[in-house]
């Protein structure tokens, strides 16, 4: 998956807050729903579209670029 300092800090904060570290592989569920991990280009494609004229009528939306993965 895409690993960033912000993601690591968020996950570490969650572990500190709950006092429980999830078993390996249980933190992110369905990571392979599309058969591959995410890459920076996945985000870049969405950002590129959103800053283009094609997205001029899109306002106030949340767009999940997660390949179907979710935090359990």
Automatic annotation (TrEMBL):
Signal sequence span is none
Instruction: Output the SUPFAM superfamilies linked to this UniProt entry.
Output: NAD(P)-binding Rossmann-fold domains
| Top-level taxon | Eukaryota
Q: What Pfam families does this protein's entry cite?
A: adh_short_C2
Name listed for the protein in its UniProt record: SDR family oxidoreductase
């Amino acid at each position: 998956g895409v690993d960033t300092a912000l993601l690591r800090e968020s996950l570490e904060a969650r572990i500190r807050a709950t006092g429980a570290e999830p078993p390996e592989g249980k933190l992110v569920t369905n990571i392979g729903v599309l058969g591959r991990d995410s890459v920076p280009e996945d985000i870049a494609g969405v950002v590129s579209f959103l800053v283009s004229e094609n997205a001029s009528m899109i306002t106030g939306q949340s767009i999940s670029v997660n390949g179907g993965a979710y935090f359990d």
